[in-house]
Each structure stands twice: as C-alpha cells, then as structure tokens.
Design goal:
By secondary structure, the chain is α/β, with parallel strands linked by helices. 45% of the residues lie in helices and 13% in strands. It folds into four domains: 139 residues, Rossmann fold; 54 residues, no CATH class; 98 residues, no CATH class; 43 residues. The strands form three sheets. It has a five-stranded mixed sheet, sandwiched between helices. Strands 6-10-11 form a three-stranded mixed sheet. It starts with a strand and ends in a 7-residue tail after the last strand.
Length: 411
C-alpha cells in the first residue's frame, strides 16, 4: 500500500498555458511530503496529451489509479489540481465518492483541497463544477471557429459517414425505422438484431455495438432527407437545475443521472433516464410526486450544528491547530516519532479542524423551505446529498440510497 499521484496534460498550442510534467511532479511530491508520505514510495501515474473529458478507458494512467483505489492499494491520492484529474463533474464526483467510501484522502496542490475534511469535500464539489465550466467555455470557442469555417464554405471534418465502410447496413437502418416508426424504436430493433453501428458510436461505447436514438436520427435523416426534424420536446436540458431533484437521482440500471421534464400543462414533473430508450431498462422514469415523500422525510433527518460566529477566537484556534500539525510533521521528519504515532496525532488534529470547518459550511447552508422555487430547493438538497440511488424495481429511493455529503449531518 502506498500513496498515488496522477499527472495529466492536454494537447495545447500555447506554451504559456502549459503545465509541464516537471512542474506537476515537483508540486505533488512537495505536497505528499507535507502530509508525511514517503516520496520514494509515491507511485506516479500520468496521461500525456489526453483530454480530461476522456473516460478511464481512454486514459490508461487514470484507469490504473481507479484500479489502485478499488483494490485498496492506494492510501492517498495527490494531483496538481482538480482539472488534472478530470474535466467532468460526474467523473470527479465518482472519484471523490469512491475515495471517501474507502477513507482515502484526495489532496490537490493548486486548489488547496484535502477531502479528509468536510470543507475540503465541499470545495472539491464546487471546483469540479468550475473545471467543467472552463471546459465548456473552451468548447464554445471551438464551436465559434467551426461556425466561421462553415460560413467560408470549408469542411469541418473528414470523418466517414455511415454506409461508407464495409459492413455498414444502411438498408437495415431504414427498415428498422420504418418498422418501428420512431428513432428510439429503431435503436431497440437494431440492438436486438446486432446490426453494426457507426465507428464513432462504437468508440463512444467502448467498441460495443450500441445504437442510440440520436445515432439512428442522424443516419436516417442523411439517408432519407424526406424525413424532417421531429417536434422539439417540452423538457429542459439534461442536468438543468429548474427541478427540485435535478442532478440527484441516479438510474439503478445504468448509473445515468435522471433528467427532469414537464408535461404540456407544466403541472406534472417526470424524471427519466436518457439511455432508457436505447438500452434495456426495467423502468426508465418516475413522477416527482411519487418519490417526494421519501425525499422530504430524509431531508428532515438533517441535524446540523448550531450557527456560530466566525470570530477572532475561531481564527486563533485554527491557527493553533495548523501550527500543531506542522510540529507533528517536523517531529516525524526528524525521527522523534514513528509513522503510527504521527497518524494518531494528525488524526486528532484533523478531527478538531473538521469541527471548525463544519461551522463554516453550516453558516452557508440555509434552513430548507419547501415553498421556495425549485432551483433554490435543489441547491440546498445538493448541498445535503451527493446522489440519491433508486430501487431498480420500485424506482423509489433505496433504503440506503441517500448519499449524504457529510454523513455526520444525518441524525
């Protein structure tokens, strides 16, 4: 068992924005030393010229890090910043949750994050949203450049269309659409018949033959231009926070976060799995009013410490605890205490720091009022819960499905 460090860099063309391997390595080694982890035993993993949006299957170093966490080999995870680990809120949340379940701290140099504390967990969640926001901004710039190319009549891609490669069965796609009468129905038929999908879709699905309704739509509309666009849905964009339970409910079949939509009158809200129309699911959706009683009951179990004023006394207490931590690390480096004694003393300091951090977090979380607009209620619920897992059969919140951001808050 040993501590692990992960380094990553995307392909960049501006040297001033590059964070070199040497810079990241020096930073994580210094950070590991401050927490008493032996640099000689520190395992360095890296993915170079790899985007943070790629999943574990496309980043071998990151995959090895997840395997070390799952197998119990990792005692701590170090990195230069949260954006080096991933650029996806979902992926970062999963990594932090997996480490939290195994009591493995995630420590970041530039972001000053340590998830062994309650405030560190909250800060990591906030920074993961910022990392994805920065990535989305970069994507907007790319889309703007592509729009300029289109205006000039330039081609955006040299990728082949479905039907250009050997083995592509365009007739089967059109036949499935005409038989089913819908894109989602055609996707189910094509999956059941093991019809070869597009190369791009295979790469997105990890070389699995999976048709999605969106893929069928693109292929069918290109092959038969007489098929126009379908009427837009009445739902909101995936992940929108205009719903009370947005970004909270997780599909028990595939793990996708459910998306909220409203009916035509705007009175009934339903949460659905976006992959339910393409992949086999026992159930794919649930209406909000059926699961709200369980949500309300669980949220009522919150037991937060009382409000405190961040006065000079609290600041001096934190300074004293930080100084105590430094003295413990100095004693260990000088050889006056062994590793076990160091961990015991640091654990006591961390517990004291967490009690201070809880006061700060509590001061920022208001008392939940269910009459607030959905967006405000959702903000508080996502501060209390990281995810809510549903039962695969009933689609109700599972008995142990509420993943509290800070488990100690549940009475």
């Amino acid at each position: 068992m040993s501590a692990y460090a992960y380094l990553r860099k995307s392909s960049v063309h501006d040297p001033s924005r590059e964070v070199s391997y040497e810079m990241q390595e020096a930073a994580v080694r210094a950070l590991a030393s401050r927490y008493g982890d032996d640099n000689d035993a520190l395992v360095l993993l890296s993915d170079w010229d790899k985007s943070g949006k790629l999943g574990p299957d496309k980043r071998p170093g990151y995959r090895a890090l997840l395997d070390a966490i799952e197998s119990g080999q990792a005692t701590a995870v170090y990195s230069y910043s949260l954006s080096r680990l991933a650029r996806s809120v979902q992926e970062l949340s999963r990594l932090i949750a997996d480490c939290a379940r195994r009591d493995i701290p995630v420590r970041l140099d530039r972001d000053h994050v340590d998830t062994s504390t309650a405030s560190g967990k909250l800060l990591a969640n906030v920074l993961s949203s910022v990392a994805q926001f920065e990535s989305d901004i970069a994507s907007e710039r790319v889309r703007g450049a592509n729009a300029s190319k289109v205006a000039r009549g330039e081609s955006l891609s040299t990728a082949r269309s479905y039907g250009d490669e050997a083995g592509d069965d365009t007739a089967a796609v059109i036949a499935a659409f005409r038989e089913a009468g819908s894109f989602s129905g055609a996707a189910k038929l094509l999956n059941a018949r093991n019809v070869k999908t597009t190369g791009r879709q295979r790469r997105a699905s990890g070389d699995r033959q999976v048709w999605w309704h969106s893929t069928v739509s693109v292929v069918v509309k290109r092959l038969d231009p007489s098929i126009g666009n379908r009427r837009p849905t009445r739902g909101y964009a995936a992940g929108g926070t205009d719903f009370v339970l947005a970004r909270l409910l997780r599909c028990p079949t595939c793990g996708t976060m459910l998306t909220g939509t409203k009916d035509r009158g705007g009175k009934r809200i339903r949460y659905s799995c976006r992959l339910g129309t393409s992949l086999p699911h026992a159930r794919i959706s649930v209406t909000e009013h059926l699961i709200m009683p369980a949500i309300v009951a669980e949220a009522a179990r919150v037991s937060l410490p009382g409000q405190v004023q961040m006065a000079e006394a609290a600041s001096s207490e934190r300074a004293a605890l930080d100084a105590r931590k430094t003295r413990i690390l100095d004693l260990f480096e000088a050889g006056h205490i062994d590793r076990a004694d160091r961990e015991r003393r640091l654990s006591a300091v961390q517990e004291a720091l967490e009690r201070l951090d809880d006061r700060k977090i509590v001061a920022a979380i208001p008392t939940l009022d269910w009459t607030w607009p959905p967006r405000q209620v959702n903000t508080v619920l996502r501060a209390l819960f990281s995810t809510i897992d549903l039962d695969k059969t009933t689609f109700q919140p599972a008995p142990t499905g509420f993943q509290w951001t800070v488990p100690e808050w549940r009475s």
